[in-house]
């Protein structure tokens, strides 16, 4: 079994496809990092103009003014307790930024690393997973090597299990690759910092209103681990579904086409069918699971973090079960 897994992993790692994926990630990170750098400069210029000070590149006066504004808002007796708690968290953040010399107006390497994955989790990450995983099974049919595999005295379930483990390895490598490229490039452009900066999390949405009762500030590196951990779960779900489709259709191109169509359909449902409760049970509507960390509104009312996590796990498990059943029963030589 271990030799099968080793053979599959080595076979995948030596393909050019992984290098192409690395190049795509690097180019996209460069593009986003440059765009964010330009946006940050424009933000500082506009803020300096609003505060009536000269934009000299010194961000401290701007942050100090924002801190004073927030402190003054805390003195307002008419704001709710939840809003007061939220403002207090922001005050603590600004105080930390000033103390540690971190410019919050410019996205640091830590914030960029986190934000890039948050923006990628809905489409870019699934697309890369599909590209890497589709031919793990269907590629064997295209190259006719499936016949050679089945002539060996190895149970079919072991063959598919080795490919499933390979998928897990690929998704893990992909997540690490995105984190490493994003952190490296953003450190060059924005400077290496902000990893210990406090970031609020624990937001919940109740009846359409943001609840900050359980909000706490945690170090940014912890939030990054949480974001990439959830992204890994999303990647595993997409990988399992892609593996299932590959087993069913035995063709790499068709498998990618089917998965892309499903993802695009999910995007349309998120916009046009969000008042239809049943769609919240579809995996496509639960991919953006990192939104729960920031308290963003979900596309369908009633969705919670535990609900979305459970939906993704159930879909992944069901896809794996179907894959093993079909692979063991079908005439794979046909």
Summary of the model, kept short:
The chain crosses the membrane at residues 18-35, 121-143, 164-190, 223-245, 252-272, 306-327. This protein has 334 residues and is mainly alpha-helical. Helices cover 70% and strands 4% of the residues.
Give the SSE layout.
Layout (H helix, E strand, L loop, with lengths): L1 H12 L2 H36 L8 H15 L6 H20 L8 H12 L3 H19 L2 H6 L5 H35 L7 E4 L2 E3 L2 E3 L4 E4 H30 L2 H21 L18 H4 L10 H25 L5
Antiparallel strand pairs: 1-4, 2-3
Helix pairs in contact: 1-8, 2-8, 3-4, 5-8, 5-9, 6-8, 6-9, 6-10, 8-9, 8-12, 9-10, 9-12
Descriptive overview:
The protein starts with a helix and ends in a 5-residue tail after the last helix. By secondary structure, the protein is mainly α. The chain has one domain (2-45, 108-329). The protein has twelve helices and four strands. The chain has helices spanning 2-13, 16-51, 60-74, 81-100, 109-120, 124-142, 145-150, 156-190, 220-249, 252-272, 291-294, 305-329, and strands spanning 198-201, 204-206, 209-211, 216-219. The mean pLDDT is 81. Strand 2 and strand 3 (209-211) form a beta hairpin. One of its GO terms (cellular component) is plasma membrane. This is ABC transporter permease. The chain crosses the membrane at residues 18-35, 121-143, 164-190, 223-245, 252-272, 306-327. Pfam families: ABC2_membrane_2.
